Amino acid sequence: MNKEKYDKLFSEQRIWNSEIITFSKLTVKGGKLAVLDPLFFFGVEDVRPYTESVPAGEYDVKACIADFDSSKRIAAVTVPFADKPPVSFAMALNGTEDPEEVANLKEGEYFGFPVDAGLAAIADMSALSAYSEFASKWEKENDDNIYDGYLSELFEQSYKADPDHQREGGDFIDLTVPDTDMHIPMFATGWGDGVYPVYWGYSEDGSLCSVTVIFIDPDVEES
Question: What pTM does this model have?
């Protein structure tokens, strides 16, 4: 990740006839974030958050919506934490990675998070814990899975509210965890299942100013 790549996704220099939309809020309380597939994780106790800490607050979540021959895809999602553009980047790590492997990554290689349901979420650990508790309780009470019985309707409502920036059925939602005031953005992952990288962005003065998830690499698929 570098500034040139970020600009292709989120600046006026962006490619693919893409549009930038704000589709959700992200609530940060404890300061530790995780990015994961919200339908395939085995309890919040097994989730390792990233080692970087984020200031508490509520932040806008932006998506780069690329237009590939009339097929809209989410190419990347970013969350600015400050009113400063990122100029340098570092891979988001959770501390379980082998330091030698990190040091010897080659161009194009990265550590990322796995996706098995075509969805991703950025969540503060406090919000993720509340969501996990809600989803587990809901599934037991309704004898159904949380996506088909609950989330899918929210995605459909999102599509009806904004059909110009997502595929039929919905590609993004601003989930407020029931019985809380905490927001978790959930969104489709570009081309679907896979492993995707997450990057911290730092401003010119070296302070943390963003987190970005890339699904479609503009340097690889610019053509």
Answer: 0.95
